[in-house]
Amino acid sequence: MRLRRALICTVALLVAVASTALARAPVPPASGPGQICTEIGCQSGVFLTAGAYFASHSSVQRIRVCSLGRCRSTRRGESPVIGQPLVLALAAERAITVTVTAFDRRGHVVLRRRLVARLRRGQPNGRNCEPVCFQADLTLSRAGVLSAA
């Protein structure tokens, strides 16, 4: 009988603890009547993947991406990791000119490419949910061709 009471008390305690934990769990924000939004973030900007170009051009030590008067660079072996996106903070749904420049060890320009890219609106949590970001994904190929994804 004592064992049965102890088991019932243990189950009751577990139910109480679980109920309290669930009551305190955060609820995803809603952005419309009855709509629940997830909380995935995003960044606006120009994202360049240049890993293939770095890998096939050992003399290239630095790549710079510029748009709307803002620039961001990465060096061989530095963060962001080769082949990872470079980010420029932009927030506009429009066409922009992007310039990508590669430099050798002495700082001489070995490649310069220019491309008009369209920033695309993105909402990773769905329509009517925040955040809203504007992105252009670019790739610099092994051969040095700059293209929009």
Provide a concise account of the structure shown.
The chain has two helices and eight strands. The protein has 149 residues and is an alpha+beta fold. It is elongated and about 60 Å long.
User: What value does the average pLDDT take?
Assistant: 76
For the CA atoms, what is the radius of gyration? 25 Å
Discrete helix count: 2
- Work out the strand percent: 35-45%
How much helicity do the residues have? Answer: 10-25%
In angstroms, what separates the terminal alpha carbons?
A: 70 Å
Instruction: State the major sheet.
Output: 4 strands, mixed
Structure write-up:
The chain is elongated, with a radius of gyration of 25 Å. The termini are far apart. The longest helix has 23 residues, at about 1-25. It contains two helices and eight strands. Strands 1, 6, 7 and 8 form a four-stranded mixed β-sheet that branches. A four-stranded antiparallel β-sheet has the order 3-2-4-5, with no helix packed on it. About 20% of the residues lie in helices and about 35% in strands. Mean pLDDT is about 75; it is low at about 5-25 and about 80-85. The protein has about 150 residues and is α+β, with helices and mostly antiparallel strands.
